[in-house]
Design a protein that fits this description.
Elements lengths: L13 E7 L5 E5 L4 E5 L1 H7 L1 H7 L18 E3 L3 H9 L15 H14 L2 H15 L4 H7 L6 H15 L5 H11 L14 H32 L5 H4 L1 H4 L9 H7 L2 H11 L11
Parallel strand pairs: 1-3, 2-4
Antiparallel strand pairs: 2-3
Helix pairs in contact: 1-2, 3-4, 4-5, 4-7, 7-8, 8-9, 9-13
Length: 282
């Protein structure tokens, strides 16, 4: 980033290296210490309904009006990385190097910022990116279900938080379903500041239903095998009382079971999220 003469002083604002243009523009400040962006008003006005309304207010004719100098920028409380990436989506043809492909954190950050400020094109971009990661037909999401670690739980919680913040329900079902798959003890999530008490109850219902459905399926297979080998069925009945849900990746059959559409739809229905688990129309 470009720095001023006092760049070693703590908390001194620095100019963003590519989003600080010359001209009659508006200056925005994000983060601590502040990162200053100098952006064309016409760009913000053209692509954001919120900024369009903001700039329609009567301008302050006094020197040093908010947004006109580095010492008096328009301060925004948003995540700097997400906001900067959102703006770069509108400048990617003139900025170098090209934008890197988004990871989950970037996509969900842009989704929140673009929804808040009504950057509609950026929001469509973020939705497309998230659908490639978290839709029921996404290879990446299906691979998460078959994963060996519960790492995606944090991402699922962040996605639920973003969905609630933006008023979107599209990703609630995939996120809640993944929590059911990876957390057979949903009470462990009660300390989450993201989930409400009703959320935890829904997860508990879904988790218990998933475990019972798996037990029934496994018992049926055991009984079928016992009959084919002329074994007494009661020899496998004790499995229900002594076994627990297999850990992810310990059973290929478990991975197949949780990835089945019928399993997903049944669990989501039990949780009563008032949303459907289906791929979005593109």
């Amino acid at each position: 980033m470009l720095k001023g003469p006092d760049d070693d002083a703590a908390g001194v604002p620095v100019h963003h290296e590519s989003l600080y243009f010359e001209g009659d523009l508006v200056i925005l400040a994000l983060g601590t210490p502040p990162i200053l962006l100098r952006i064309l008003r016409t760009t913000l006005r053209a692509h954001s309904e919120v900024f369009r309304d903001m700039f329609s207010l009567p301008a302050n004719a006094q020197n040093g009006a908010e947004g006109t100098t580095d010492n008096n920028p328009i301060s925004l409380p948003d995540d700097p990385d997400a906001f900067i990436y959102t703006l770069k989506l509108y400048h990617h043809t003139i900025l170098e190097p090209p934008l890197p492909p988004p990871d989950f954190a970037t996509a969900v950050g842009v989704f929140r910022v673009s929804s808040k400020y009504q950057f509609h094109n950026a929001r469509d971009w973020a939705l497309k990116a998230l659908r490639s990661m978290w839709s029921p037909e996404s290879p990446r999401w299906l691979s998460l279900l078959a994963g060996s670690t519960p790492g995606p739980i944090e991402d699922a919680l962040k996605l639920i938080e973003a969905a609630r913040e933006t008023g979107s329900t599209e990703f609630l079902a995939p996120a809640f379903y993944l929590l059911c798959v990876f957390s057979d003890d949903s009470c462990a999530l009660m300390g989450s500041t993201i989930l409400s008490h009703s959320d935890v109850l829904s997860l508990l219902k879904g988790s218990q239903f998933l475990t019972k459905a798996w037990a029934v399926r496994y018992l049926d297979e055991c009984l079928s095998s016992a009959r084919s080998h002329y074994l007494k069925p009661h020899s496998v009945y004790g499995w229900i009382a002594t076994s627990s849900r297999p850990k992810p990746n310990e059973s290929k059959e478990w991975s197949k079971f949780v990835a089945q559409e019928a399993t997903m739809e049944s669990v989501v229905a039990v949780m009563d999220l008032s949303v459907e688990l289906k791929s979005s129309e593109h």
